[in-house]
Structures are given as C-alpha cells and as structure tokens.
Design goal:
The structure is a single chain. The chain is about 60% helix and about 0% strand. Helix 3 crosses helix 10, helix 4 packs parallel to helix 9 and helix 5 packs across helix 8. It folds into 2 domains: about 45 residues, no CATH class; about 140 residues, orange carotenoid protein, domain 2 (Orthogonal Bundle), CATH 1.10.2090.10. By secondary structure, the chain is an all-alpha fold. The N and C termini lie far apart (about 60 Å). The chain binds beta,beta-carotene-4,4'-dione. Beta,beta-carotene-4,4'-dione binds next to helix 4, helix 6, helix 8 and helix 10.
C-alpha cells in the first residue's frame, strides 16, 4: 500500500498520470494496459493520413513518383527555405556534396540515379544517400529540384502531365497541413536509396 502511494507521488512529480488514478491499480491490469497501447498504435497507423499517402506514393511507378515529387516541389514554392533556423539534424555540406556528384553527371545519368534512389538500387550514390539523416535527404531532393529549375539537373519535359492516380495523390497532399506535409515527405524520402549499415553484400558491384 505504501509502495503504491510512493509510485503515485513519483508519477505526479514527473508529470505522468499515475495508473491508480486512472483506475489501473495493480498488475492484474497489465493486460488492459497492453490492449490500450495496441489500440492506440493501431489507430495511429491506420488513421494517420500520412501513412496511407506514403503507401499510395510508393505504389506508383518510379517515374510517376519522380514526377509527382516534382509537382510537390512546385506547389511548395517558397514555403521551404533551406536556411531555416532550427534545422537541427540537417547537414547542408553533406547534401551539397552528394548533389554536386549528381550535378556532374550527364542528364541521362542524373535521371537514372534518381530512379535508382527511388527503387533502392545498390550503388555508391544510393549508399551515401542512405547514410544521411532524413532531413538531409529532404534537403538533397530539394537541391535536385532546384537544379532542375536551372537545368543543371535534367529538367521535366515540357507540358508533362501526371497520370490520374498521381494527380489524385497530389491533390490529397495539397490538402494536408504544412507539418503533415513535411512528415509525409520525410516518410517518403527516408527509405529511399540503400542503408549501408544493413545492406547485404552485392557481388555484382562489390558494394
Ligand atoms: O523525361 O527541418 C520523368 C529543410 C520521366 C531545412 C522525368 C527542410 C520523363 C531543414 C521521370 C518524369 C529545407 C531541409 C523526366 C526541413 C522525363 C528542415 C524526370 C524541408 C526527365 C523540414 C523527373 C525540406 C525527375 C523540404 C528527375 C520540405 C523528377 C523539402 C525529380 C522538399 C523530382 C523537397 C525531384 C521536395 C523532386 C523535393 C527532384 C518536395 C524534388 C522534390
């Protein structure tokens, strides 16, 4: 009894709702706690608008993913400023270094390398990409899109039209709040490329 009073006090001190106060007083309630956690997780993963959109995005063909991402960039316009303060985990130099490697390639290679990133082909660029933080990945894609604007990176063909599925997705993305959009883009770019810490040895490339 003394024990649980102490527990309540400690919880309150740390700003947590003590279990006894929400009606969960002893170990026999552990099952209910697990059930609650499970329900919360399930609600999150099935009703989180971003996670459904991520899945839809990934189910598009690679060129449609690239094209859609381009239109997203166009929509975002000036709302993104890479110099934004509080860009804690972003490494501008790392993003720039990888961008410069792509910039030096031919237009055809630039397109191929972006397709490879999307599909997770094992090559040096993909591995360097996979070693970057999610925010740095975002910045890298942002730099590529800027490069397309100035034609240092292969530009979009003029009058390119999105397929209806991708266009539908674009409209859903437009309807998200800014923070939700950023979360979505992070979730999209995060698994692209190859994570060098977990990738299996590839005999054909020796990577
Ligand atoms: O010929 O916290 C097709 C930071 C086929 C700051 C093609 C940030 C036909 C820190 C495939 C269509 C700024 C990093 C050609 C946050 C054909 C921070 C080619 C936020 C040529 C939050 C298509 C950053 C191609 C954000 C090559 C929000 C398409 C960044 C390429 C957002 C498309 C970045 C590209 C976005 C799209 C980048 C490169 C939305 C890039 C989009």
């Amino acid at each position: 009894m003394k024990h649980s009073k102490l527990a309540v006090k400690l919880c309150l001190q740390r700003g947590y709702e003590p279990l006894p106060l929400v009606g969960l007083s002893d170990r026999s309630h552990l099952g209910s706690v697990r059930k609650m956690i499970y329900q919360i997780l399930m609600t999150y993963t099935t009703s989180n608008p971003s996670s459904k959109l991520v899945q839809s995005f990934r189910s598009l063909e690679v060129d449609q993913q690239l094209a859609l991402f381009w239109f997203v960039y166009k929509e975002m316009g000036n709302s993104v400023t890479p110099a934004a303060p509080g860009a804690g985990t972003v490494s501008t130099e790392v993003a720039e270094g990888l961008f410069n490697q792509v910039k030096d390639m031919s237009h055809e290679q630039q397109l191929q390398i972006q397709r490879d990133l999307v599909t997770g082909q094992n090559n040096l660029i993909s591995r360097e990409y996979g070693a970057m933080s999610d925010t740095t990945k975002l910045l890298f894609w942002y730099r590529l899109a800027q490069g397309m604007d100035s034609a240092t990176i292969i530009p979009m063909p003029p009058n390119y039209q999105l397929a209806s599925e991708a266009d539908n997705l674009l409209n859903q993305i437009k309807g998200l709040k800014f923070e939700q959009q950023i979360t979505l883009f992070r979730d999209i770019v995060s698994p692209m490329g190859v994570d060098p810490t977990t990738a299996e040895y590839d005999e054909s490339t020796g990577l």
